[in-house]
Design goal:
Blueprint (H helix, E strand, L loop, with lengths): L11 H8 L5 E7 L5 H8 L3 E8 L2 H14 L7 E5 L18 E7 L3 H15 L3 E7 L4 H10 L3 E10 L2 E9 L19 H17 L8 H8 L7
Parallel strand pairs: 1-2, 1-4, 2-3, 4-5
Antiparallel strand pairs: 5-7, 6-7
Helix pairs in contact: 4-5, 6-7
């Protein structure tokens, strides 16, 4: 038996992230992996040839490595632990064939500004390889989407998930994708679901509050979100 733990319980967000992973990869990088639950679950289900656990907290990674060393009965090459900044992923080191080796980098649980800083660095590391990203910022979703569009990322899939009465946008993107990515979301909305409509109204209200300060130029953002509303009225 290869399983590390048959009783891994993922949060709603992690379940939705996992649900977006529908094809196998050569390498999956679970960045800011915290306790490594997502990576362990992906390892159990063999979603990639190698699962990489990445964080800057040594104690957390030590515990993950102890768990894997003790319980994983597959090959040692099935997983790697990296105590490094996610901005410095050694993608080149783990790419033997640029056309056949595929990478998925997962970044979740951090703010939008930090996420864009990481992507600035990762862009130069990954530009020559087949790399996809799953991103779940905790805020500044519009700014992150703007950034991705500016840097010519295309949409592969997206979801809107709710956890502890809060909505989170999950984006699966890649520069190799030709599907249009929008600033306000397209595939994720289900306005038959009251939670989705409530999330949209709260988002509009947030930017309307920001607009009370004349230094905040957010009128165009409000208009973009409001254009989604007629379809549900």
């Amino acid at each position: 038996m290869n399983s590390t733990n048959k009783n891994i319980k993922l949060s709603q967000r992690l379940q939705y992230i996992k649900a977006l992973i529908t094809t196998p990869y050569t390498h999956i990088w679970d960045c800011c992996c915290d306790h490594g639950l997502l990576g362990l679950s992906l390892l159990d289900e063999r979603r990639a040839e190698t699962i990489h656990f990445v964080d800057v907290v040594p104690d957390l990674l030590d515990k993950i490595e102890q768990t894997l060393t003790q319980f994983w009965q597959g090959n040692r090459e099935d997983w790697q632990v990296h105590c490094i900044d996610a901005a410095a992923l050694p993608v080149a080191q783990y790419t033997q064939n640029k056309t056949e080796n595929t990478h998925l980098i997962i970044i979740a649980g951090i703010g939008g500004d930090l996420m864009m800083q990481l992507l600035d660095s990762l862009h130069w590391i990954t530009v020559d390889y087949h790399v996809e990203f799953i991103l779940c910022p905790v805020h500044h979703n519009y700014k992150v989407r703007e950034y991705l569009i500016e840097h010519r990322f295309g949409l592969m899939n997206e979801s809107l998930v709710f956890e502890n009465n809060r909505g989170y946008e999950i984006l699966h993107v890649a520069t190799l994708s030709s599907r249009l990515l929008t600033e306000t979301g397209s595939l994720m909305w289900d306005f038959n679901n009251a939670l989705h409509l409530d999330y949209l109204n709260k988002t509009i209200a947030h930017y309307q509050r920001l607009a009370n300060n004349p230094n905040n130029q957010v009128g165009h953002i409000i208009n973009q979100y409001q254009r989604l509303l007629p379809d549900v009225e």
